[in-house]
Amino acid sequence: MENQIDQSVQIKAITTLLIANRGEIASRVMRTCRAMGIKTIAVFSDADQDAPFVAEADTAIHIGESNPSASYLDQDKIIAAAKKLGADAIHPGYGFLSENVSFAERCVAEGIVFVGPNAAAIAAMGSKSKAKSLMIEHEVPVVPGYQGEDQSLERLTKAAEEIGFPVLLKATAGGGGKGMRIVREASEIESAIAAAKRESLSAFGDDELIVEKYIASGRHIEFQIFGDKHGNAIHILERECSIQRRYQKVIEESPSPVLDEDMREKMGAAAVNAAKALKYDNAGTVEFIYDESSKDFYFLEVNTRLQVEHPVTEEITDLDLVQMQIESAQGLPLRLIQEEVNGIGYAIECRLYAEDASNDFLPVTGRIECFEIPEVEGLRVETAIASGSDISIFYDPMIAKLIVWDNSRQAAQTKMRYVLKNLVCLGMTTNQNFLLQLLENEDFKAGRYDTHFIQNKIDLSELSRQGEGAELLACVAATVYQWHHREQSRGLLKSLPSGWRNSFNDYQKVVYISGDTEYETKYRYKDGAFQFFAGPLELKARLIEVLDGSIRLQIDDTQYKFTVAKNAQHFYLHNESTGNISLQEKPRFPAFEAEKIEGGYESPMPSQIIKILVEPGQEVKSGESLIILSSMKMENTIEADADGVVEEIYATEGANVEAGFLLLKMASENS
Ligand code: ADP
Ligand code: ADP
Ligand code: MG
Description:
Oligomer: single chain
Bound molecules: adenosine-5'-diphosphate, magnesium ion
Strand order of the largest sheet: 14-13-10-11-12-15-22-20
Strand content: 25-35%
Helix content: 25-40%
Largest sheet: 8 strands, antiparallel
Shape: globular
Number of strands: 39
Low-confidence stretches: 492-496, 500-504
CATH class of the largest domain: Alpha Beta
Radius of gyration: 27 Å
């Protein structure tokens, strides 16, 4: 068997490719371009001027302000850049314009090769209702539900009753885990439909909904598909992506721990069916939800682009999916047939995010003070940050993708745990400790999980802390690190012992704050060693070596290396055994404390103000929406927590504000 060749397909040369994206995926695409001898052009926004992916490109061109709509989503600017610099192809990466029908059409109209599927295939899958209808026509199993044109409340309610509760309402135009709402019982359906329509309209500019049976225990298993312009289509095995929070993936692995050869073949065949139905001609992903107990699987959607988690597939097949994308876009036939697709070993990917797992996974922003990747055979890191990079409010908070390959699932996981313990990423809260906790979970190790695993099996309240023992070690390390730096700057007074010049018996005292716990750390330095009373512990410490940003010290009989990063408020420390710990030094004198303003509403994180929904003097009811904020692609609505009258508004639409910014003030009804 060979792939069929359609002689009428014109083969186009690509010598210069513009990447209409940013961050790690821009770097990823450029890597393949270099291997193929294709010149690369990066486009960048204000916020990305100093980003590594920009420096990595052969040519880089500024296209606008940081806000994506003024740069990475601005089709005119991107097309103009491509023409100005003579790009014969554009790779859209994922997100941004990657699944935008008019952009794909426009590239073709301008004579630029769009590295992705044909616009008709994107259009067919852009609507969840049309996608499902098409799949039903081609006998691909779909989740039982309603995806009709009649969007009246009566019809949708009737659909929900027929399907049986719980049901899932989905925005037809939705994506990225947004615009979904579970409805558990009939009494909630009316208000849920109204709310889902409102949300969908504001997020996607369209209020059409589909209603689906809610699969209570399902696994997200997706198949990589690939097609060419000659009519060939294959699947390149599956990725299991059930470890999710907020309907978004955190860990992906391949092969799935629950598919046997038989199921793989069945689901793979359905995926290829879907590809053929679409005349699919590039990289795509067919997502299924899989019911382990009944072995039923249902089509969810097709993502018509390269997927974030594509490296997992690359690691087990040794294929370069970006290269295959470029080849298909050029008009070349697929480089392999289905029978040649062969996975070897196991691969797993963890997404390192700037987010706080213990605070509802809210994204955080800030500067990555220190980023160090451990040297591990078989580890692949996809990232576009380096020490000193900023995680800004404008873009996705993903810091890096960590991918490991090994012969078996167990070996790959052992390796991943090692990587998660030894990777250094300091300067803000990340999900690194959380990822390690997932990898250490016995059910996860055994492959027993579904899409609700994080919600049901992980105690998120335990997450922000690493335990008293670990935190006290970090307090000791921070103290000695500080001591050393003071000592160095003491200059002329060097002959005197630091800090307690007159009385040897006095202990120096530092109080550190971790979460809401205070640790009193008392110490004195004598004869080359430190004697510590840290919380309830008495410890001996000896400084071995201090470098810029790290310290090696011996505490009792064990030597530790801590990587240390400091910013204005925090000490960030990392050690293989303690994980990431952040400490605040308690000021010696009671500091001026920002007073909470009564009736004040603050921005919970650094955000952009999208919309102000109220006016001064307006009466509002408890629960009413006041202001819509956006941070890293996430919308956040500030709601009134009591009835009252809006007194004053300090926010302005479009402005970027820090966490804690006072947005507005309300006077309560009875005051
Ligand atoms: P998106 O376009 O936002 O990615 P999907 O339809 O792919 O939307 O669904 C995202 C996630 O939501 C899935 O990975 C799965 O965890 C969950 N999900 C989707 N549909 C269902 C369903 N019918 N029942 C239960 N969970 C679902
Ligand atoms: P790199 O991508 O790091 O330059 P290679 O091209 O040699 O390295 O391999 C790609 C990846 O495939 C490596 O990161 C490695 O983990 C993984 N790998 C190694 N051996 C195999 C194999 N036999 N089959 C599949 N993947 C492998
Ligand atoms: Mg999806």
